[in-house]
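Q: Here's a chain of 117 amino acids. Please give me its 3D structure as tokens.
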Amino acid sequence: MTRSAPAPIPGTTVFDGAEAQKGYALNRMCFSFNDAANRAAFVVDEAAYCDRYGLTPEQRAAVASRNVLQLIAAGGNIYYLAKLAGILGLNVQDLGAQQTGMSVEAFKAKLQASAQG
């Protein structure tokens, strides 16, 4: 029996080998945030820190925009991006709201309604 690839979900970036290669510098930078000194260095001079890891213009723009969908489109892996989100003061509800195109308040209300329902 041969499995066929699942149908793509519109608006979804599949993190595959090509995306991993595209996002290598961004994900490597985000992995560096496991070290508190690196998190502090990023906060002090974001541009210099991005230079240190050789981010592409697309990746730099995505970091500057604080937009998780742009970060994913730039090759970011959500597990590594969570490190960056923490530094930027974004929580899970902020990320979920961005990914669904909702306001944070609407996203939280949707979560609360589904928990009660």
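Q: Can you summarize the key feature?
A: The mean pLDDT is 90.
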